[in-house]
Design brief:
The protein is an alpha/beta fold. The chain has helices spanning 9-18, 20-40, 74-82, 85-95, 97-104, 110-133, 138-150, 154-165, 186-243, 249-289, 298-301, 304-326, 332-421, 446-471, 478-485, 515-528, 550-562, 580-584, 592-596, 625-629, 632-644, 661-667, 682-694, 709-712; strands at 45-55, 166-170, 176-183, 427-433, 489-494, 538-543, 568-572, 606-610, 613-616, 647-651, 670-676, 699-707.
Length: 730
């Protein structure tokens, strides 16, 4: 493949010349449409009024909100309101157009014209639609359409006409809006335009009053509902306070937590005392169970009364010791001393018992105190939980009352505020400049329309030409083949008016002195110069598809070769649809097929059907042409013919139809592929060339047949203009 060729200006010019008829037709249609439209359209007069529209900032003392100064949608919103149907209806009412419009329009109202045009269009289209859908009730359909159109009153039609004809344009960098209206009557245009501003002001007031009335009515109904809710919530709160004795609940709710904390603290201390007393008591009981000396326990030994008794006992023992030294055991003094010490020991034992009983009593008291405080804590917690639950419900009911009261008060306040501000306009409108009666129509602008028709027609036609060229996927010029596939183009054959559309061979040969004949001579020269050593002796002439002119090219190329005093053989190897025998009017009973089948010998050629030109016809059509053409007998035949003749030209079937041409191309010194200009597609051509490449056939070149010289841009054929082109086919 070669690199893509740079597109030159001449290529564009060639396309324009080729498609000039398309450009001219498109230009003529568009220009005539614009011309007829400009000449037949009704003159329309336009006039405008300028209106200053400002947003009225609310008084912040009366309202709780303020407008944002920058509002990009404000003017656009007001423009839509100006163009709305309600404003148009007010204009119709102010000018009494329902009665006066026909008078102004000289008994030819614009609405009547529009209505009749629409009705006529519907009536003309309904039969076609009915036929398309298979319906036969066209009359009933037209009657229903007329009924639908008649449902609108004249006032509604005029309102819609005014609304559609109004044009509202904000003036840049200002608050001024320009209102434009167009009409065939200049007086109506001025009257409607000036009335639109007044109708717009009335519409703004109506919208404000409707909005205020709706707001006040809604808030009044809502206030009544909230008042009933407030009364119900207050009654529910009073009933709950009465049923649960909530009169002093707020005082009690502050005392109970303090009491709960104190009881919890006392219980902790009581638990500590009980544990201490329990420890002491357990130690005493352990000594008693083990029959030990209780005086070894600190809580007993540290008792002052017991210590005093132990001191007296020690003194009594000291005294007994001293008396025993002087007296015997039965001495009265000894007995008195012994009796006294026994009395002291008994008192000591009783004191120990009393101390133990005191310890036990202290333990019992501590345990009882702990249990009492624990019960008191449980009761206090229960009271606190119950009180909290009642207080929560009390708070819920109280909040409902406060919420309903606040909402009710807010609604009452808003109703009073709305009543004060409902007459304030949110938009202020002033007419800056009145509309005047126009002197000249604004439409149609005939010079502009004609210029636009010329521009659109010319550029549209050029665009259509290039678009059609882009969609064209056929081979047309040698440059296309050479640039896209890098294949040599040996020549072009101009189209002939006498050639049948199916590409069949003509009944008579072409005059070789005509432009078409000269093209075959040029092809002959290109073939002779295509090889540096010597021209190819065996040439296969084939095509991609049928009816592209391969047989015609083979015949006239053979005739052109024979004019050089060279011995030329033309072989019809198309064993499926042979035509050469008909062209030369020779007998086809014997030929190539009978020789390859072994029925006849080498004497199958018709000698000198033209000077220096022999022809081998195809013979009868065999059932197996592909096998015959691929046989060794055919190879031998080609070899013998190349030795006997200077040039052998072989006509074969198309490449994509059957495979007959492929084995022949392997035997030929060169293969020439015929394509038909503006008919052979690139897809088919590339598939055919690929078949030849796959078997490594020798491709001599391409011949483009039936080239339109007038549109192709190849003007050098004009030098043959003095020839008589009688339409001889190829």
């Amino acid at each position: 493949m070669n690199e893509e060729r740079e597109i030159h200006l001449r290529d564009y010019i060639r396309i324009l010349r080729k498609r000039k008829s398309t450009i001219v037709i498109f230009f003529a249609i568009v220009f005539i449409m614009f011309l007829v439209g400009s000449l037949t359209s009704t003159p329309v007069y336009s006039t405008a009024t300028k209106v200053l529209i400002e947003k009225n900032e609310p008084n912040q003392i009366l309202t709780n909100y303020t407008y944002v100064s920058y509002d990009p949608e404000f003017l656009e919103t007001q423009s839509l309101i100006i163009k709305s149907i309600p404003v148009s209806k007010k204009v119709v009412h102010l000018l009494n157009l329902e009665k006066n419009f026909d008078t102004f329009m000289n008994q030819h109202t614009e609405s009547g014209f529009i209505l009749s045009a629409v009705k006529g269009w519907i009536k003309s289209m309904l039969p076609n639609i009915s036929d398309l859908l298979g319906l036969n009730n066209s009359e009933a359909s037209m009657q229903s359409a007329d009924t639908l159109l008649r449902t609108k009153t004249k006032s509604e039609q005029l309102s819609e006409m005014i609304s559609k004809s109004l044009m509202v344009t904000p003036v840049p960098d200002s608050r001024i809006v320009e209102i434009t209206f167009s009409s065939p009557n200049p007086e109506i245009a001025a009257m409607v335009t000036n009335s639109v501003a007044k109708a717009y002001i009335e519409q703004i007031l109506d919208m404000r009053m409707q909005s205020s009335g709706y707001s006040i009515g809604w808030m009044t109904r809502k206030a009544d509902e909230e008042r009933l809710k407030l009364e119900q919530s207050e009654q529910s709160l009073q009933k709950y306070m009465k049923d649960h004795d909530i009169v002093t609940i707020e005082d009690r709710i502050t005392i109970l937590p303090q009491k709960l904390a104190e009881v919890s603290s006392e219980l902790t201390r009581a638990q500590t005392r009980r544990k201490e007393a329990e420890t002491v008591y357990n130690q005493v009981m352990s000594v008693i169970r083990n029959k030990g000396d209780l005086q070894t326990l600190p809580m007993i030994s540290e008792n002052q009364a017991l210590q005093a008794m132990n001191l007296e006992i020690r003194k009594a023992r000291q005294q007994i010791l001293e008396i025993s030294k002087k007296y015997g055991p039965k001495h009265p003094l000894m007995k008195s001393a012994l009796a006294e010490i026994d009395s002291l020991n008994a008192n000591r034992d009783r004191e120990i018992e009393r101390i133990v009983a005191s310890i036990k009593n202290e333990y019992d008291l501590a345990r009882a105190t702990e249990e009492t405080l624990d019960q008191l804590l449980t009761c206090t917690k229960s009271d606190t939980a119950d009180l909290n639950e009642r207080f929560i419900q009390y708070g819920i009911l109280k909040r409902d009352v406060e919420t309903n009261r606040n909402l009710y008060n807010a609604l009452v306040s808003k109703i009073k505020e709305q009543s004060v501000t409902d007459q304030i306009r949110t938009v202020d409108v002033w007419v800056v400049e009145d509309a005047k009666i126009p002197e000249f129509p604004s439409k149609p602008n005939k010079p502009r329309n004609l210029l636009l028709g010329i521009i659109l027609g010319l550029f549209g036609g050029i665009g259509l030409a290039f678009f059609l060229e882009y969609l064209d996927n056929t081979i047309k010029l040698p440059e296309d083949v050479e640039d896209r596939l890098g294949l040599p183009v040996l020549g072009m054959v101009p189209e002939s008016e006498g050639l049948p559309e199916n590409g069949a061979a003509p009944p008579v040969p072409i005059d070789m002195d005509t432009p078409i004949g000269e093209s075959y001579k040029a092809l002959r020269s290109a073939i002779q110069l295509s090889s540096q050593a010597e021209p190819p002796k065996a040439l296969l002439i084939t095509s991609v598809l049928p009816r592209e002119g391969k047989t015609t090219t083979a015949i006239h190329l053979a005739m052109a070769m024979s004019q050089l005093d060279r011995k030329v053989l033309l072989m019809d190897a198309d064993l499926r649809r042979p035509r050469i025998s008909n062209f030369f009017a020779i007998d086809n009973a014997k030929g190539l097929s009978t020789y390859l089948a072994g029925v006849t010998d080498m004497k199958i050629a018709h000698k000198d059907v033209r000077r220096n030109l022999d022809v081998i016809p195809s013979g009868p059509c065999p059932p197996n042409p592909s096998e015959l053409l691929a046989s060794e007998r055919y190879k031998t035949l080609i070899k013998l013919l190349k030795e006997k003749y200077d040039t052998v030209i072989i006509d074969s079937p198309p490449l994509l139809s059957v495979s007959d041409a492929l084995p022949i191309s392997k035997l030929a010194d060169g293969t020439i592929v015929i394509v038909r200009s503006a008919e052979t597609t690139w897809d088919a051509f590339e598939k055919g060339i690929k078949k030849l490449d796959d078997i490594q056939a020798k491709l001599a070149g391409i011949v483009i047949n039936a080239v339109n010289i007038r549109t192709s841009g190849y003007g050098y054929y004009s030098q043959y203009g003095y020839y008589e082109t009688d339409g001889t086919a190829r």
